[in-house]
Design goal:
about 150 residues, 5-stranded parallel sheet, 6 helices, 5 strands
């Protein structure tokens, strides 16, 4: 699978169990998705800025969508989301929060910072399809495998 025939997702998640559940839910959607995973807020920023080990944009392409946990090492999800929104060239990226927090204040903060969706873990294939359906049409065409 290459980046030309799939949608690229970036999962920012530090819990191996949650990574497993996300992979399983994505597989159940039946969509072709290339998922890259980083495990903390600092790695997310390095990946998105193409620095450190993520300099190779062929191997680490910019994602069509980001699923972002809130509770992360180094920088939390809100700090990463704020950085994304303040960074030219990245500010329009689709970012969905994927967290264990059902707190209204977290939902409100995520919305204020421009998150496209707020999902409480674990994700279901139906909730992922709904969120992924909000991507641009060309990304959906790529995800459907053409």
């Amino acid at each position: 699978m290459t980046t030309t025939d799939s949608c690229v997702l970036l999962l920012v998640e530090d819990n191996p169990d949650d990574i497993f559940l996300m992979r399983r839910a994505l597989k159940k959607t039946g969509l072709e998705v290339l998922m890259h995973i980083v495990t903390d807020g600092r790695q997310a920023i390095e990946y998105l800025s193409g620095t450190s080990q993520y300099e190779d944009r062929v191997q680490f392409p910019l994602p069509s969508m980001i699923f972002l946990d809130l509770k992360l090492p180094y920088l939390n999800g809100f700090e990463v989301l704020e950085w994304i929104r303040d960074t030219p060239g990245l500010s329009e990226l689709d970012v969905s929060i994927l967290t264990s927090s059902p707190e209204d204040r977290d939902k409100e903060t995520a919305s204020r910072l421009g998150a496209r969706a707020y999902l409480v873990k674990p994700p279901t294939s139906a909730s992922l399809l709904e969120v992924l359906g909000n991507l641009q049409p060309q990304a959906m065409t790529a995800m459907a495998g053409r």
